[in-house]
From TrEMBL:
Keywords: 2Fe-2S, Iron, Iron-sulfur, Metal-binding, Oxidoreductase. Gene3D superfamilies: Naphthalene 1,2-dioxygenase Alpha Subunit, Chain A, domain 1, Rieske [2Fe-2S] iron-sulphur domain. Its cofactor is Fe cation. It comes from Saccharopolyspora shandongensis. Pfam families: Rieske (PF00355), Ring_hydroxyl_A (PF00848). GO terms for molecular function: 2 iron, 2 sulfur cluster binding; iron ion binding; monooxygenase activity; oxidoreductase activity, acting on paired donors, with incorporation or reduction of molecular oxygen. It comes from the Bacteria. This is Rieske 2Fe-2S family protein. Residues 45-151 form the Rieske domain. PANTHER family: CHOLINE MONOOXYGENASE, CHLOROPLASTIC (PTHR43756). InterPro entries: Rieske_2Fe-2S (IPR017941), Rieske_2Fe-2S_sf (IPR036922), Ring_hydroxy_dOase_asu_C_dom (IPR015879), Rng_hydr_dOase-A (IPR001663).
């Protein structure tokens, strides 16, 4: 970003009105895209994968954050590690596949060879005195939280991540995600800025556009008794009844379920809660019944609603009694975002025997496609000279929290 660009960005950040959407430049400008990479994606913990995607030593995946390419792999000791995907010889990209398995990490240019611990093992034709210990792969901070893999590019990651991890792990632990397996993974490129993808996910003001999801998702999400429309009163009363039943089950089983919401008051903003589902209350299916016969982890009953987790800046998760769904939003360009959705099932679940893949994927595949259409419409509208920031409805308070967190992170970076 140029000096002039920095000044303009600082002015836009400083004048952002609380309770309103951001100005167009935040969603459309290359300057803000580059700033988002530097201030957000290069400084915070970013969800990039699940341990289930790296089941064996040597299994790896690569991911892109702006100009950064990162390797995430399971090393020979079965630990999760991450490195910059840059050879220490002359900087060539080492691994160019999205995923695979290696014994050693070999650069295809001059065959410099690294162990899965990142140490340089072999560098052909080097002079006497060459010290391979000085040329290991540059490490990236990596941490698994109950089977969810996060990386941080910063030299000093946000210190509060350990506290956040300790608070969310008890919610996730009963589902044993580290032992789960991948049933499916779908990449969808949305034609919108990454912030629009996240904002869209943080509200249900638009959820009448998700008929499949609303079969099991209560349509009262985000409402309170004070702003609940009369048409939603029957659904709300049904929600209160089912919620009381879920709380009793969790209390008897020692499962945490209470809402923790710290979205914009800390570096690693998060929200977690176990909430009931409608209909059979077991899973995201047309009738609410489990999509997989094998339970996901140590669950006392299929009727456990959904465990919902949201982490700033780029991820959200839904875990039900029979499967889990993870979502990661990764910026590609000012107007394009990769949404990666991964479905996890029990390790002994067999496709075609214990679950039907189409049934398992149907609800969230439809919802993602619907959201992609809405995000594209938002991006198109914001690109018009007629656009100006509009006010958020009370049910969009989590969108405001996301934007408030984002603006706070930019202020700190620009300072």
């Amino acid at each position: 970003m140029t000096a002039l660009g920095t000044i303009e960005a600082s002015e836009l950040v400083a004048r952002r009105p609380v309770g309103h959407s951001l100005e167009a430049a935040f969603y459309t400008g290359r300057e803000f895209f580059d700033l988002d990479i530097a201030a957000i994606f290069a400084k915070h913990w970013i969800f990039v994968a699940t341990e289930a995607e790296l089941p064996e030593p040597g299994d790896y995946l690569t991911t892109t954050l702006g100009d950064y390419s990162i390797i995430v792999l399971r090393d020979d000791e079965e630990n999760i590690r991450s490195f910059h995907n840059v050879c220490r010889h002359r900087g060539a990209r080492i691994l160019d596949q999205q995923r695979g398995s290696v014994g050693n990490i070999v650069c295809g240019y001059h065959k410099w060879t690294y162990g899965t611990d990142g140490a340089l093992r072999h560098a052909p034709s080097q002079p006497p005195g060459f010290d391979p210990g000085c040329f290991g792969l540059k490490p990236v901070h990596a941490r698994s939280v109950a089977g969810l893999v996060f990386v941080c590019l910063a030299d000093e990651p946000p210190r509060d991540f350990a506290d956040v991890s300790a608070r969310i792990e008890p919610y996730l632990a009963p589902h044993r995600l580290r032992e789960a397996k991948v049933a499916a993974q779908v990449d969808l490129v949305e034609q919108g800025n990454w912030k629009l993808v996240m904002e869209n996910n943080r509200e249900c003001y638009h959820c009448d556009g998700h008929p499949e999801l609303l079969r099991t998702f209560f349509p009262t999400y985000g409402y309170t008794d004070a702003n609940l429309p009369a048409r939603l009163r029957p659904a709300h009363e049904r929600y209160l009844r089912v919620d009381a039943e879920l709380r009793a089950i969790c209390d008897d089983s020692g499962l945490p379920y209470r809402l923790i919401e710290e979205l914009d008051t800390r570096a690693t903003g998060f929200r977690i809660q176990r909430d009931p589902l409608d209909l059979a209350g077991e899973s995201f299916t047309a009738d609410g019944k489990a999509a997989c016969r094998r339970p996901l982890g140590d669950v006392p009953t299929p009727r456990l609603g959904h465990l919902s987790l949201h982490l700033q800046p780029n991820s959200w998760f839904h875990v039900v009694s029979d499967h889990a769904v993870t979502f990661s939003a990764l910026p590609i360009a000012p107007d394009r975002t990769l949404l990666r959705t991964t479905w996890l099932v029990a390790p002994d679940a067999v496709e075609g025997v214990d679950y039907d893949l189409e049934t398992l994927l149907k609800i969230w595949t439809a919802t993602n496609e619907q959201d992609a259409h809405l995000v594209a419409r938002a991006q198109q509208g914001i690109g018009s000279p007629a656009y100006e920031p509009g006010p958020y409805a009370p049910t969009e308070y989590q969108v405001e929290a996301f934007c408030n967190w984002y603006i706070g992170r930019l202020r700190e970076h620009l300072r």
